[in-house]
Amino acid sequence: MLQRYGLIEACLTGAGVFFVAALIAAGCYMVGKKQIEARAKQTAKSAVHTALADPMLIATGIQLIRAIGIKKLIPILAVGGMALGFLASRNASHDEAPAE
Question: Which of 9, 13, 60, 97 could make an S-S bridge to 5, C-beta 3.0–4.6 Å?
Fold first, then answer.
């Protein structure tokens, strides 16, 4: 390239080759990251489904509702849901990798 077209064209061609290689590497990284996230989401869904499908857990929940009463249980569940939401949002912000 240098002998035929000159210095500027050779440098631009080299830069273009490295740019294309970087785009391919970034694309592979993004595809791999999406696949990992999809697998993690599927695993989380199956774990929740398994826990909710457990007959002992359902029986315990029904007994808890009967013992405490539905009117007293609603505020307790609301506060527990808010606490779980705050905890989940706090963990999500710590799970993100720092920018380098």
Answer: 9
